[in-house]
């Protein structure tokens, strides 16, 4: 079969498409061999048979326009049925043959991974191409090809090719074409029966077992789906049904904190990612005013209003973030715990400095870097370097820009709480000069200051050393005070995340700042240290963004200043501490 497939042009020289005749014959024979119980164990245990199947899947005739794949040719010649897709579906359906296939796929270079995904995309698009006759089995074949393509996503190079192909957006667009609207396919919610093809395709894409996938894969797939019409699809579905109807995206939270989570809540929890925010914001603008009015007036409002509130929260956060002169050399981060005690002249225009070894620690000046090296960084530099390399390999590394934004989000949430606007913190709020008296353009000191909205200060009613928690898993994002012990208990691989020397010093400073004499606290402006932690769920990982703040409560204004910020990245599946159902530090 390999001989016939590889030498098809001269073996079948007298047919109309000689380059594909041999591979077509080989695919048909391979399917028959698989269904033969007597020959299956003999044939498919051979590595060369698996090599042949992978080669057939990636085969493309570059002379045709557009490039013709074997699967596309089989789809046309077999009236929609495809023996190659059937064989690959059977082989990837269980570990017996899937694991050897993964070994062979891992040994292939990136260009072969890209070719495999491109062949899959061309194959699936062939089923939606007009005027190809579309049958009732078309969605089944498309979904089988999708499952084959997703079978190798745990291979990093393959996942990269999968992301760059933008396959999710392409296929959601194809499934929405006019001649495909009458097609219906299966979804994970089998009791709902068959659904329109665009709904069926979207449920097969996101998230592909998010608890074991990289953040880049999950965020890129979903942002492509949203840009290609996923949000409009969800809105149309919600408006066409009653409140009791179960939605078809029940598999979206598979392996995460909440099974069967509503898709709008799932999208809202991902808005910390820049691509997801931009895609969702643009998609919301395409929702008609009439539909938005219906969503806010009916039963849908319990899902729609929190989703929009969370989007508005991130819109305000990004306006503040981009309004603070946040270019590459002025990220408002300095890892020196003594940075706030330095004069402005000590941290002048040297530009941001990153440790040349670990590439993680960031400082505002040579003086801060030298001081922190002696105090802490000399002991932690090696481990932070290893963590960065490991994170980059798993696409879980938090860049300095992303870290800066998450710290800005945490600062704004704490700022709103300190102002006393507990009832409106997630509603749209204009950011104008007469409301925000000063936003942090001070170098490496992100600062927000505004007039009090309420006379009640959060710290006046709670002097215990608690930690401010912003949980982005909840929509709208929840904020609460948790005991510092809850932070100290978080562990990963048997190691307490926040019991390293730097974290313990920060926590001791928090406790010391609360031990203030009552007479001092009742006279004049009041200043204290506050800790905040922002929890972000990103694919298989959790980000703990720890911020150290100075809060100054004056007679008319409140000022919140970010002193330092650090990020801890852990794998959710291997975290020692149990994860509460609300996704926070404690139930």
TrEMBL record:
One of its GO terms (molecular function) is zinc ion binding. InterPro entries: Znf_MYND (IPR002893). It comes from the Eukaryota. The keyword Transport does not apply. Keywords: Metal-binding, Zinc, Zinc-finger. Residues 334-381 form the MYND-type domain. This is MYND-type domain-containing protein.
């Amino acid at each position: 079969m390999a001989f016939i497939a590889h030498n098809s042009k001269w073996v079948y020289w007298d047919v109309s498409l000689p380059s594909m005749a041999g591979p077509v014959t080989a695919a048909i024979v391979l399917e028959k061999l698989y269904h033969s119980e007597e020959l299956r164990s003999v044939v498919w245990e051979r590595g060369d048979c698996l090599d042949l199947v992978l080669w057939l899947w990636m085969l493309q005739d570059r002379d045709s326009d557009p490039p013709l794949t074997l699967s596309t040719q089989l789809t046309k010649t077999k009236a929609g049925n495809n023996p190659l897709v059937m064989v690959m579906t059977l082989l990837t359906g269980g570990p017996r043959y899937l694991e050897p296939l993964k070994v062979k796929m891992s040994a292939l270079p990136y260009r072969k991974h890209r070719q495999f995904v491109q062949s899959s995309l061309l194959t699936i698009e062939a089923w939606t191409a007009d005027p190809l006759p579309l049958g009732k089995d078309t969605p089944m074949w498309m979904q089988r090809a999708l499952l084959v393509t997703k079978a190798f996503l745990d291979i990093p190079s393959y996942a990269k090719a999968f992301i760059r192909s933008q396959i999710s957006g392409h296929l959601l667009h194809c499934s929405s074409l006019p001649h495909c609207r009458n097609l219906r396919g299966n979804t994970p919610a089998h009791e709902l029966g068959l659904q329109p093809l665009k709904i069926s395709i979207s449920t097969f894409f996101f998230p592909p077992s998010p608890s074991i996938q990289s953040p880049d894969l999950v965020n890129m797939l979903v942002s492509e789906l949203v840009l290609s019409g996923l949000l409009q699809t969800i809105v149309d579905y919600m408006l066409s049904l009653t409140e009791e109807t179960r939605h078809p995206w029940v598999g979206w939270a598979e392996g995460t904190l909440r099974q069967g989570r509503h898709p709008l809540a799932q999208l809202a929890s991902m808005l910390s990612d820049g691509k997801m925010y931009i895609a969702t914001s643009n998609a919301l603008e395409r929702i008609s005013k009439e539909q938005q009015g219906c969503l806010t007036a009916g039963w849908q409002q319990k899902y729609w209003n929190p989703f929009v509130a969370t989007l508005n929260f991130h819109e305000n956060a990004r306006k503040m973030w981009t309004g603070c002169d946040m270019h590459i050399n002025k990220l408002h981060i300095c890892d020196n715990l003594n940075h706030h005690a330095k004069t402005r002249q000590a941290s002048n225009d040297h530009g941001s400095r990153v440790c040349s070894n670990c590439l993680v620690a960031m400082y505002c000046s040579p003086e801060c870097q030298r001081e922190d090296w002696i105090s802490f960084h000399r002991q932690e530099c090696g481990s932070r370097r290893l963590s960065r390399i490991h994170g980059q390999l798993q696409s879980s590394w938090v860049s300095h820009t992303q870290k800066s934004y998450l710290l800005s989000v945490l600062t704004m949430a704490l700022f709103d709480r300190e102002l006393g606007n507990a009832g409106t913190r997630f509603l749209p709020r204009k950011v104008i000069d007469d409301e925000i008296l000063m936003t942090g353009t001070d170098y490496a000191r992100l600062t927000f200051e505004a007039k009090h909205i309420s006379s009640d200060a959060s710290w006046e009613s709670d002097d215990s050393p608690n930690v401010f928690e912003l949980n982005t898993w909840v929509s709208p994002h929840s904020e609460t005070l948790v005991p510092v012990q809850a932070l100290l208990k978080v562990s990963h691989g048997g190691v307490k995340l926040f019991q390293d020397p730097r974290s313990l010093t920060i926590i001791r400073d928090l406790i010391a700042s609360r031990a203030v004499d009552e007479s001092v606290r009742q006279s004049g402006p009041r200043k204290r240290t506050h800790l905040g932690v922002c929890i972000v769920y990103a694919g298989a990982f959790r980000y703990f963004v720890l911020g150290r703040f100075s809060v100054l409560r004056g007679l008319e204004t409140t000022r919140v200043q970010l002193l330092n910020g650090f990020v801890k990245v852990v794998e959710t599946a291997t975290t020692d501490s149990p994860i509460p159902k609300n996704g926070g530090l404690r139930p």
